[in-house]
Amino acid sequence: MAPRPCAVLGIGQTKYKRRRDDLTLDGLVREAVLRALEDAGAAFDDIDAIVIGKAPDALEGVMMPLLSLADALGAVGKPIHRVHTAGSVGASTAISAVNLVESGMYDTVLTVAYEKQSEGNATWALSGGKSGGQGAGGTFAPWIRNYIARSKAPEHIGWMVAVKDRLNALKNEYAHLHLPDISIEKVRESPMLWDPLHFLESCPSSDGAAAMVLGNDDVAKKSGRPPAWVISHAKRTEFGQFPGRDTVRPQAGVECSEALYRKAGITNPREQIDCAELYVPFSWYEPMWLEGHLIAEEGEGWKMTDSGDTELGGSFPVNMSGGVLSSNPIGASGMIRCLEAASQVRGTAGEYQVPGAKISIGHAYGGAAQYYAMWMVSSELNPEL
Amino acid sequence: MPQLHDVDYTLEYPYTRTTGPVIGPFLTGLRDGRILGQRCGDRVLCPPMEFDPDTSATLEPDLVEVGPGGEVVNWTWVAEPSAKHPFDRPFGFTFIKLDGADTALVHAVDTGGDPEAMSTGMRVRAQFATERHGSIADVYFVPEADAGDQVIEPGDEPVAITEHLIGLRINEPLYPHRARFAQGLLDGKIIGQRSPVTGKVYVPGRGYDNMSRVLMSEADEVVVSDVGTVVAFTELNPVQYYGQTETEPYVRCSILFDGTDQPVIGIDIRDMTVDEMRVGMRMRCIWRDPEERSVEDIDNRYGNIPEAVYARFEPTGEPDLPADDLKEHSW
Prior knowledge:
heterodimer; A: 385 residues; alpha/beta; Peroxisomal Thiolase, Chain A, domain 1; 9-stranded mixed β-sheet; 34% helix; B: 331 residues; mainly beta; 2 domains; 5-stranded antiparallel β-sheet; 2 helices
């Protein structure tokens, strides 16, 4: 039986900030949920099931938050599911919600992801609570060094991504970082955190939540809201360490994108996809994922950045919203990528809208670059490629 | 089987909580000697809630004083209190419906350690701690007859952010393969596990080959060379967090030891700068004197080759291996 078509019918985001000191964790999640419901023209009564995701519990020290959040989410008396895939969880959560609609099990599903980073410390949590932790930046920096050595990319590529994403963020009212005077010089001269990554090439630590209302084709028709049809999605996993692992170009990432494109009939992603929201928490991951997800040939991704192709207005815009480099409520960051991709094809991205965007992708990776989740959305259920 | 240390450490962090528009006034009230409930339709909820528990509607902050007396509607007895409990003697954990409230608060009742003094339907009364911080532990309950009058001085600022040292003590023996690996380091040897299926050598071994999905045991263990090749590195500028003791930048690298198939990650280099490091560089472990070696930092999840067993890694002076040959070991 063919899967039921599934569309994004409502999206909601909080303002991302270093610390949302005006809201409890419950209130924060709720803010995004109410905005998604409003955008979808829906109420809690219309929701059949809820799928929630966040990064590991150690980030805030709240165990099984899906239980205590039931009131805030309108989940009392309804099925609620939680997804765990480390940093990719926001995108995995969205895709798990799509599965529930496509299967025909539920008509309308609310999906939400969040992090309130200010209540704990991510580097502490990722270090097992011990001194000498290297955190995410220290884990990825050696792989980035190896990418640079392998691709012979010039060092300014990372700085360019850091500037581009922060300039994009100026057009996004929800973005955490608004740095109007960002420049290549400022990035280059900011402190070196994990060689070769400077402070300004790294994501911030944010509080925030993101939510979407997903519905099947009947619900989409009734809602009258502009739909973003989820025309393809894929998840892949590999071990964090094994003999033969290529951490610069992980096999699971390659296979995840192959599966994503195959299902949608995409044969030339760079030409057939209009724009992408990729999970880029550290500047160099833009060219690494352009290659690792087959948008650029191996060794060629940095040239897309260098030539301006990935800028808003370029031939393949990446992270029009400002990306993870501008807002990073970890558990939500992957969902924000999916939601921003949907916003583009719904034509609701405002100042950072890619004109006429018809097909877009949202992406996230997690753990030691070992979990991948990607979705492709379109303004049409069966778009001409 | 070597007898090594048991793992025993507490994973803990001083988490903070933003209290928000309803819980904030509740905690401020406790600090100031008052218990507040939240109006919800014609009911009063205590503890207060931000959202209607039945309809999920947003509740505008509307707090009213309840208690200080109330009725125990259900209870259990804690015969052996832990260090985290509110009393160091046995006590009752109870549901208390405070006077003026329609829902019950979970809280502790102190009967001086006497379980016979507890009963469903008993009357209790709030007592406030001498030192109050805007926490649920600012208050406790006693049988009404035991309650004394208190004069509470209110505090100044509303309680907006609270701090909680939340932790988990991990106390367990080292897994046998971890214990053998650690003992090897004390003996100046790096022990790996050779997969009985593929022949690939893992360091440190996990007790199984994750690719072939077979167990590996002591019979699969081999002593590997302490000379290897740098496959990846960075220089860390340590992020400061609770429990972090590192303050100065240092190099961290991954080394593929000769005869192995998976690099050892997280090796700290203190006497070389990032500019002196190269992928492909050949390095040798210079061990500490045996009596100076320690494997205390090794537990079942973290710790590969800790600094407490080696004096330094030094370049062997051999020509570098080509980086292209190390692609598949790039961690």
